[in-house]
């Protein structure tokens, strides 16, 4: 669709926060006037607003919307027939014996005009009708051959990555037919702050460390209970995520339960507890649990495959993979709620929270702040910030033989400079609850000296300090001399 056609697209409803690109892509797909049936695949984890968006697209374009549910095939076909009859104004409800008949009736909708057809939670239907993807693939092939001017715009949506991958595989792959693939992601940390209406950057980091950027957590799971200000954060935690009467309290365990093929769910929880407690490598996790490296590696691979974990190479030891929990709520659950479940069930939440608040700062807020700093480096820092174009930002460890220890750098940025990829642009330390000063710069200089000794080119490195509470006078003086880059929470949320 041309740019001039874009002005004719239905306006995004005010009740949909952001998602402007997703809205434009979907309504343009739904109203594409070109001949030929087309397919779009929409994916994303739970609670990202897929259904909310797709229902709005259906209303705006006059499309047919059907919400898939886990039910026997005959029941799903009956529901589907009733919905389609109501949509078309048919005098009677058809009785189909299989999905091939339903697919044929569905694709007829596009014979006269662009006809959006949205099947939400498609994997729920596939679970009880495994042949359904192949049936749709065959139906599309027939329409392409027999009715090339048909303009059905079929949109399939699903949250489960495992089932979506099944749709993409095999000789009857729907992936090969898709002209649009759209992944609904959580809001980035800046958009999440705006969505929650939080202006104070430090409070925004704290809230994001609990609920991340999943939009449904604010409306559906805490009923728009937003911290009134920085001084309300502790009370907000107690009345929401630590309150069994609030749906958010139960959500984290549903994130695991929705994936039903874990062989050892207890080991999954233990691995998540270890990661939330600071162990990030397979060997470190296995040592913490007293489990075999083989078993731990298998669980890590399964959870990584399902999108519950992110695996990233160490900045200076590429053969070493570090894992972190992808969903902040899941990290909060396994660092705070899971280990203290008995106390939370026996005592008032405020009393328990006062005791474990330091644990939150050390094991949840601090690593989450470091991750936001890495996100800032790749998403918001400009060329001038580091003297190059940032492409990756990860953790890095450097051995210090004199002290027989390893020094960690939380924000190691590489990117493009002078036409060269992979240039080391910046090495930084991130401290959530420390006022950073001269000792931190000295530590950075020691890391850079060790990197030089190891053969790393540090010619373009910008030393950086990221702090959640501020910087001391000596570090400020070093910044004025151009010796170090300082990034606080204000710049994290509002600067580049």
| Largest sheet, spatial ordering of strands | 2-3-4-1-5
Strand content: 15-25%
Main beta sheet: strand number and arrangement? 5 strands, parallel
Low-confidence stretches: 2-7
Instruction: Supply the helix-strand structural class.
Output: alpha/beta
Helix content range: 40-55%
Return the CATH topology of the largest domain: Rossmann fold
Strand elements, count: 12
Total count of domains: 3
Structure annotation, total helices: 23
Name of the CATH first level of the largest domain? Alpha Beta
Report the span from N to C terminus: 34 Å
What's the architecture of the largest domain, going by CATH?
3-Layer(aba) Sandwich
Output the radius of gyration. 26 Å
Shape: globular
Mean pLDDT: 92
CATH superfamily of the largest domain: P-loop containing nucleotide triphosphate hydrolases
Q: What can you tell me about this protein's structure?
A:
The protein is globular. The strands form 3 sheets. A 5-stranded parallel sheet has the order 2-3-4-1-5, with helices on both faces. The protein is α/β, with parallel strands linked by helices. It has 3 domains: 3-183, Rossmann fold (3-Layer(aba) Sandwich), CATH 3.40.50; 191-370, Arc Repressor Mutant, subunit A (Orthogonal Bundle), CATH 1.10.10; 380-494, Trna Endonuclease, Chain: A, domain 1, CATH 3.40.1350. The longest helix is centred in the C-terminal third of the chain and has 31 residues, at 349-379. Helix 14 packs across helix 15 and helix 14 (265-276) crosses helix 17. The chain has 23 helices and 12 strands. Residues 2-7 have low confidence and may be disordered. Strand 8 and strand 9 (405-417) form a beta hairpin.
């Amino acid at each position: 669709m041309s740019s001039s056609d874009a002005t004719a697209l239905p306006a995004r409803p005010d009740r949909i926060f952001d998602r402007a690109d997703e809205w434009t892509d979907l309504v343009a797909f739904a109203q594409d006037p070109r001949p030929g049936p087309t397919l779009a695949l929409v994916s994303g984890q739970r609670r990202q607003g897929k259904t909310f968006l797709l229902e709005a697209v259906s209303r705006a374009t006059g499309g047919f919307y059907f919400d898939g549910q886990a039910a026997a095939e005959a029941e799903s076909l009956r529901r589907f027939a009733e919905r389609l009859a109501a949509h078309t104004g048919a005098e009677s409800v058809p009785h189909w014996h299989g999905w091939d008949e339903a697919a044929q009736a569905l694709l007829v909708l596009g014979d006269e005009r662009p006809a959006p057809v949205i099947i939400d939670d498609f994997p729920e239907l596939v679970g009880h009708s495994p042949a359904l993807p192949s049936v749709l693939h065959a139906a599309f092939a027939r329409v392409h051959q027999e009715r090339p001017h048909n303009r059905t715009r079929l949109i399939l949506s699903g949250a489960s990555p495992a089932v979506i991958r099944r749709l993409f595989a095999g000789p009857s792959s729907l992936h090969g037919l898709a002209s649009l693939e759209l992944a609904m992601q959580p809001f980035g940390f800046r958009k999440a702050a705006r969505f929650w209406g939080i202006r104070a950057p430090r409070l925004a980091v704290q809230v994001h460390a609990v609920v991340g950027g999943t939009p449904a957590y604010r409306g559906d799971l805490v009923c728009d209970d937003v911290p009134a200000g920085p001084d309300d954060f502790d009370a907000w935690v107690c009345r929401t995520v630590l309150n069994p009467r609030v749906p958010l309290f139960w959500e984290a365990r549903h994130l695991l339960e929705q994936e039903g093929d874990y062989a050892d769910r207890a080991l999954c929880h233990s691995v998540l507890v270890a990661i939330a407690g600071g162990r990030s490598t397979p060997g470190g996790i296995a040592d913490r649990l007293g489990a075999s490296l083989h078993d731990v590696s298998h669980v890590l691979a399964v959870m990584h495959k399902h999108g519950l974990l992110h695996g990233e190479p160490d900045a200076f030891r590429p053969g070493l993979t570090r894992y972190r929990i992808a969903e902040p709520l899941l990290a909060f659950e396994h660092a705070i709620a899971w280990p203290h479940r008995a106390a939370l069930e026996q005592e008032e939440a405020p009393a328990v929270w006062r005791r474990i608040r330091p644990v939150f700062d050390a094991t949840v807020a601090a690593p989450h702040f470091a991750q936001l700093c890495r996100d800032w480096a790749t998403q918001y820092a400009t060329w001038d910030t580091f003297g190059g174009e940032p492409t990756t930002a990860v953790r890095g460890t450097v051995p210090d033989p004199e002290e027989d220890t390893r020094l960690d750098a939380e924000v190691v940025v590489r990117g493009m400079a002078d036409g060269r990829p992979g240039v080391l642009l910046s090495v930084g330390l991130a401290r959530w609850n420390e006022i950073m000063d001269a000792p931190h710069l000295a530590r950075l200089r020691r890391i850079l000296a060790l990197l030089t000794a190891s053969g790393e080119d540090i010619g373009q490195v910008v030393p950086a300090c990221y702090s959640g509470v501020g910087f001391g006078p000596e570090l400020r003086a070093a910044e004025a001399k151009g010796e170090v880059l300082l990034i606080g929470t204000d710049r994290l949320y509002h600067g580049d």
